[in-house]
Every structure is written in C-alpha cells, then in structure tokens.
C-alpha cells in the first residue's frame, strides 16, 4: 500500500503547490490525479519518487517512509513514464528497455529475456529491439516508454500525462493497452491527466485536485453520481453527470 499523509509542498513566497493532502492507495489500484493547470497534481506525483522533496508530511510504501530510502534506489524501484517519452536516441530499443535492469546488474540473459517479454506485451515485433527510437512512430515510442517503466518488475508505476502529445486514435489505443497491462500485471498505476474522459476510462479511483488540495477522491461512478461540490460538478461537465433514477 502507498500511504500519503498530510503531504505539503511550499515554494518561495509561501506558495503552497500541494496543501496537506492525505490518501491511501491500495496495491494494484489504478489512480488518476486530475485537476486544472496549477492544481498540484504533477507535484504530488513527483513527490512519490522524490523527484520533488516534500516540505511537510510523509509518503510510505508498505509502511516504509520514502525519506528513509536512497532517492536513486527509490527511483529505480518505481516506474516513471512522461509525455516526452525520454528514450535515449543513441541506444537501441532493447538497450532503452533494459536501462534500469542494467543499473541493477542483471545478467545479459536476464536482460535479453525481459526485453523480449516486454516488447511482446505491447504487440510490437521482436525485430524492433534492434532498431533505434527515430525509426519508430510516436505511438510506438510511447509503448516502449511504458514497458521500460515495467522492466525491473517495479510494483508502482507513475505516469505524468504520457499520452498528451499523441493523436486521438493513438492515444485511445494506448489507453486500452495500459489498462490491459495494469490488470494483467497487478501493478499500482498512478496517472496524471487533464482529460476527464481518460481518467474515467482508466482509473479505479480519481483524485480531483484544485489549488493544491484534494477536492474529491472516489471511484469514477461515485464522482459522476455524487460530485462533492460545484467545482467538481463544473469540472467534470454536466454531460458526464449520472443522474440517480428511482
């Protein structure tokens, strides 16, 4: 379980990017953080792997405070996918996929086996392992970005608007792929998005944020049926609301 307790991030000028949020995320859940620009959703995500250090509060993974862990080791054990994909252009697809296993000193046989397993998971041919990122389409590159985050058997995968730059058809296909992978592998996915339809489609629970605070944290169905306040109602849009019927 991942437990966030009274998490706060204060920048200069006493600006609170994240303001006293508390959440419990169960192992194997798919959680979407969503909110307007500046709501704190990406800051909250990046505090989980200590890309940003919290000002106050704590984050525990299976009861262990992340501040007690070496930040480099912590990041190697948490998958991370970003919109920019971040593949190394001078490395082959295989080398990109097994980057973290290489740092963890896996054997060549273990790395080769893992690369073949993962490229199969995302429905790309094994021959792509010897190609370079520039030889793949944007959607294919993002598939590699996703499986790279799974390469070292990480239990928690953070995804920061990974499909925001893709065309609608590619984005829809990758959403289906990510949800299938998450269910199949039983990993905990924490996903930042600004797209409510994407959050509803993917998430077991949605965390709606505004001005650094959690406004509502619940299942998509409960949020659509019982929005916490006018902000949530306006944010999700009248056309998505589910009216309770007798």
Automatic annotation (TrEMBL):
Residue span(s) of domain ABC transporter: 2-236
GO MF terms held by the record: ABC-type quaternary ammonium compound transporting activity; ATP binding; ATP hydrolysis activity
One GO term (biological process): amino acid transport
PROSITE patterns: ABC_TRANSPORTER_1, ABC_TRANSPORTER_2
Annotated InterPro entries: AAA+_ATPase, ABC_transporter-like_ATP-bd, ABC_transporter-like_CS, Gly-betaine_transp_ATP-bd, P-loop_NTPase
Keywords: ATP-binding, CBS domain, Cell inner membrane, Cell membrane, Membrane, Nucleotide-binding, Repeat, Transport
Tree of life domain: Bacteria
GO CC entries: plasma membrane
Reaction catalysis annotation: a quaternary ammonium(out) + ATP + H2O = a quaternary ammonium(in) + ADP + phosphate + H(+)
EC number(s) given by UniProt: 7.6.2.9
Gene3D superfamilies (alphabetical): P-loop containing nucleotide triphosphate hydrolases (3.40.50.300)
Cell compartment(s), UniProt: Cell inner membrane
Subunit-structure text: The complex is probably composed of two ATP-binding proteins, two transmembrane proteins and a solute-binding protein. The complex is composed of two ATP-binding proteins (OpuCA), two transmembrane proteins (OpuCB and OpuCD) and a solute-binding protein (OpuCC).
PANTHER family assigned: CHOLINE TRANSPORT ATP-BINDING PROTEIN OPUBA, OSMOPROTECTANT IMPORT ATP-BINDING PROTEIN OSMV
Protein name: Quaternary amine transport ATP-binding protein
